[in-house]
Hints:
Blueprint: E1 7-10, H1 14-24, E2 28-31, H2 37-42, E3 50-53, E4 63-66, E5 69-73, H3 78-83, H4 85-90, H5 92-97, H6 104-107, H7 112-118, H8 124-131, E6 135-139, E7 146-148, H9 149-152, E8 153-155, E9 158-159, E10 166-173, E11 179-186, E12 196-205, E13 208-217, E14 224-225, H10 227-233, H11 240-253, H12 264-280, H13 285-289
Parallel strand pairs: 1-3, 2-3
Antiparallel strand pairs: 4-5, 5-10, 6-7, 6-10, 8-9, 11-12, 12-13, 13-14
Helix pairs in contact: 10-11, 11-12
The protein binds flavin-adenine dinucleotide (FAD).
Flavin-adenine dinucleotide is lined by residues 29-37, 39, 74, 101-102, 106, 110-111, 113-115, 117-118, 120, 123-125, 161, 166-167, 193.
Amino acid sequence: MKWPAIGYVRADSLDDLWRIQAEHGAAAQVLAGGQTLLATLAFRLSDPKLLVDITRIAALRGVELQGGVLRIGALTRHAELARDGLVAAHAPLLAEAAPLIAHPAIRNRGTIGGSLAYADPAAELPACVVALGATIVTASAAGGRRIPAAAFFTGLLETALEPGEIIAAVEVPVATQATRSAIREVARRSGDYAMAGLAASLEMDGARVGAARLVFFGVGAGPVLAARAGAALQGRVLDGAAVAAAQASLAQDLDPPADMHGPPEMKRHLARVLVQRVLAGFQPETEAAA
Ligand SMILES: Cc1cc2nc3c(=O)[nH]c(=O)nc-3n(C[C@H](O)[C@H](O)[C@H](O)COP(=O)(O)OP(=O)(O)OC[C@H]3O[C@@H](n4cnc5c(N)ncnc54)[C@H](O)[C@@H]3O)c2cc1C
């Protein structure tokens, strides 16, 4: 389908954006990479009168280490996440996740801010930021807020963003020597949205798990933190029994709806498989081979 007739304007700074928003109100919608928004326009799933291009706003760009936190500007593209040295060193889960998103052309334009704001339940990055205990930093004409990622995703394609508020950056606590992270997903074809996926971040205490955040995507209305499965791993050596305990806990953590990929029981099965695949990567070689 063709796009509807629509206005376009470019904001060169945050002040410019606030001025445009004040003038056009709810009729204006921010445009970042356009990889989701332009498709929703074509399918008449959204109806803004004016697209406000934010891709030239310098305050939304860049990846910086600030003490114990990696600040990733909202305009950081998926392809940049995959190749940035700071991301690889300090938030390797995001570097591992980025190549799983769609195809190179989409990764070259799509941004982390756009992905988090759209909050697709099958998207990789929302699950990753929850697994990493990240903070979403917002900006608006009224000032900014800092929202824990776990509180940011509020429902199907819904977030805690208020009208006129945008994502400015994501702050990720830097990985330590004790951090282990991984992402796995099951998709029909490479580049498709996942049928189910799991992003995990563990803090090890020697050979034992100190804390574990297992966050699923594609199995609910948004990223699903499997709190009981994480608790089942706490204090344990990552052996087969620990994996089985985490898998058993999923029955309480997950209540997946049926979707175009299949019924809830298929999703539950995929979730168990994903736990095994993710945790196998953290086990000593002898355990993983057993
Ligand atoms: C064929 C195809 C396959 C895809 N496959 C995947 C996949 O496997 N996994 C995956 O995760 N994604 C996938 N995507 C989506 C892709 O990751 C998008 O890039 C991403 O969802 C949106 O980012 P964007 O920068 O393009 O945002 P846009 O399309 O520009 O905007 C999306 C929405 O976010 C809002 N927005 C954008 N930036 C901000 C901001 N800073 N603050 C507040 N609101 C903002 C916009 O107003 C709009 O509502 C796919 C897209 C396509 C077209």
